[in-house]
Design brief:
Its EC number is 2.1.1.-, 3.4.23.43. Plays an essential role in type IV pili and type II pseudopili formation by proteolytically removing the leader sequence from substrate proteins and subsequently monomethylating the alpha-amino group of the newly exposed N-terminal phenylalanine. One of its GO terms (cellular component) is plasma membrane. It catalyses: Typically cleaves a -Gly-|-Phe- bond to release an N-terminal, basic peptide of 5-8 residues from type IV prepilin, and then N-methylates the new N-terminal amino group, the methyl donor being S-adenosyl-L-methionine. With 256 residues, the protein is mostly helical. The protein has two domains: 93 residues, no CATH class; 138 residues, no CATH class. Helices cover 72% and strands 0% of the residues. The protein has nine helices and no strands. Helix 1 crosses helix 3, helix 7 crosses helix 8 and helix 8 crosses helix 9. The chain is globular and about 65 Å long.
């Protein structure tokens, strides 16, 4: 029941995240004015604002001007719902689930904004530090695992420092937005364990590297082309959160 409930909540949150992804890069309010069709400016009716179903009912077109509505909108809603359901499966009914639900929500926003604009907005990343700190502290209090909170602090500093050194060594490779995001993800990963931090941190470079090689081989990029790295950091962190402990244990068993 909790998985189904959070799936439904994820659909609603995903609808709101579409607004955030569109407006934050443009420095617009995410509260006002109400959502409207970007083509004709007509305010979206409430019955046309039901996640996924409204898009299907309208056949992907504005009710007023019949302009096409990108399928990305329902995909973001469905994707957020799936992530929320996975968090429920991973953490169940716990205080920790709140922290990782929050991380999933901002992760969707940051990944899409980075793909669109090659930026990771401070307006989302920086406020997330105190929010995640409070949520992880509540989770430690609820579980009685206070060492996890200290581990999160250390992990955040370590991953932040690692990315900072990379930016200093090769500024063209990534931006300082990646550094700020690294501290956030490092804390979330390390709260779960050192294995999760190691796997999540490494997976970002592995996935980003594979994607870059694919672009080079397909001729869609050259060695001087840049790619947004934030999405791969977030996907790597998701792998670390979901499977990092098991992967790390299996790796140590193989090596040792």
């Amino acid at each position: 029941m909790i998985v189904a409930f959070l799936f439904a909540v994820g659909l609603v949150i995903g609808s709101f995240l579409n607004v955030v992804v569109w407006r934050v890069p443009r420095a617009e309010s995410i509260v006002r004015p109400p959502s409207a069709c970007p083509a004709c400016g007509h305010e979206i009716r409430r019955r046309d604002n039901v996640p996924v179903l409204s898009w299907l009912n309208l056949r992907g077109r504005c009710r007023d001007c019949r302009a096409a509505i990108s399928p990305r909108y329902p995909l973001v809603e469905l994707g957020t719902a799936v992530l929320f359901a996975l968090v429920a499966l991973r953490f169940g009914v716990s205080a920790a689930a709140l922290a990782y639900l929050y991380l999933a929500a901002i992760g969707v926003c940051l990944a899409l904004i980075d793909f669109d604009t090659r930026r990771l907005p401070d307006a989302i990343v920086l406020p997330s530090y105190p929010v995640l700190a409070v949520l992880l502290a509540v989770a430690s209090w609820g579980s009685g695992d206070w060492p996890a909170l200290l581990r999160a602090l250390i992990g955040g500093v370590v991953l932040w420092a690692a990315y900072f050194l990379l930016v200093v060594a090769y500024p063209a490779g990534m931006g300082f937005g990646d550094v700020k995001l690294a501290g956030l993800l490092g804390a979330a990963l390390a709260w779960l364990g050192w294995g999760e931090l190691a796997v999540g941190g490494f997976a970002a470079f592995l996935l980003g590297g594979v994607f870059s090689v694919g672009l080079l081989l397909s001729g869609r990029a050259n060695r001087k082309s840049g790619i947004p790295f934030g999405p791969w950091m977030l996907l790597g962190a998701a792998i670390g959160i979901g499977f990092g402990g098991a992967i790390w244990t299996g790796y140590l068993d193989l090596v040792l």
